[in-house]
Design brief:
Layout: H1 17-36, E1 43-47, H2 51-63, E2 67-71, H3 74-84, E3 88-91, H4 100-110, E4 115-119, H5 124-133, E5 137-140, H6 145-164, E6 171-173, E7 176-179, E8 184-187, E9 190-193, H7 196-206, E10 211-214, H8 215-223, H9 230-243, E11 252-257, E12 261-266, H10 270-274, E13 279-280
Helix pairs in contact: 1-2, 3-4, 7-8, 7-9
Length: 289
């Protein structure tokens, strides 16, 4: 199987490493000039144990004007993360020394650094586990570099918007609390950490409890107008449904309204919802599963 689907119109050849290294020096020089001129430098920690994939992916990201910090195993990744504090982590799951799941867990214990997982694993359980541990996005191998860089920029845009915006106020509903600073859901004295994306989805649904929130509004609120991804939304909703069971009986349920959006139904509202007594929170429509 090819490592990548495309690279500048051609498959990844075996002898490109010298070309990559020659361009590395040029890319580093360009970043130095860019920084001296006052431009914002985005640091990406790239964690990959396959030297060919690490080499070529680093080259592509540097060509896109990112500063790339490389790590080839989990232990090195954690050291570089603590030392360099990157703006984004791109990592494989199958790492030597410390596996990707453990790296993901340790980073999430300390910080909300955006994380993008790239892996050849096809097991749905592994993918769900990565999302539950806090990854922000997932790209399966083989992949196109255009897709990878597009997802990187989308994640960085969301992170920048989240930093620029004033934190939303905490929300309390029927004994459930949403803490926008810690990204935590508390219910019946039990707390569960949510990813920033999961939190924004749940926050919008809970603050409109009992009303259908169109998928288009969720896309704009969570990803921005140009970051809509129906599959990603469905995946995050699935994870949220499981996390809502933290205290046993959930404080409410997230239901899909086909071809419209989603609604958070408080436990006390479920019977009323079955009679169709729900209103659309705002105009707009989008697909939902």
């Amino acid at each position: 199987m090819a490592l990548f689907q495309r690279f500048d119109g051609d498959m990844w050849p075996g002898g490109v490493s010298l070309r990559v290294r020659s361009w590395d020096a040029c890319a580093i020089w360009q970043h130095s000039i860019f920084q001296m001129l006052g431009g914002a430098v985005i640091k990406i920690l790239l964690v990959e144990d396959d030297p060919d994939i690490l080499d070529l992916t680093s080259y592509v990201l540097r060509r896109e004007r990112f500063v790339v910090i490389e790590a080839s195993d989990g232990a090195q990744a954690l050291r570089r993360w603590k030392t360099d504090r990157p703006d984004l982590v791109i990592m494989d799951l199958g790492l030597p020394s410390v596996d990707g799941f453990e790296v993901l867990r340790r980073i999430r214990e300390e910080d909300q650094t955006p994380i993008l997982v790239i892996t050849g694993r096809k097991d749905a359980h592994d993918i769900l586990r990565a999302f539950n541990l806090g990854t922000d996005d997932f790209v399966p191998k083989p992949f196109e570099f255009r897709e990878l860089t597009a997802r990187v920029r989308a994640i960085l845009r969301r992170a920048q918007v989240a930093q620029a915006e004033a934190p939303e106020p905490s929300v309390q509903l029927d004994g459930m609390t949403l803490d926008p600073v810690a990204y935590e859901l508390t219910w019946r004295d039990e707390s569960v950490r949510l990813t920033p994306t999961e939190f924004r989805i749940l926050y919008l649904l809970v603050t409109n409890a009992g009303h259908v929130v169109p998928a288009s509004r969720l896309y704009t609120y969570v990803w921005g107008s140009d970051g809509a991804d129906a599959n990603a939304l469905r995946s995050h909703i699935s994870h949220l449904r499981r996390k809502l069971e933290v205290g046993g009986a959930p404080p409410g349920t997230i239901s899909s309204i086909p071809a419209v959006g989603y609604v958070f139904r408080r436990t006390t509202e479920n019977e009323a919802a079955n009679s169709g007594e729900l209103n659309v929170a705002s105009r707009g429509a989008g697909s939902a599963a």
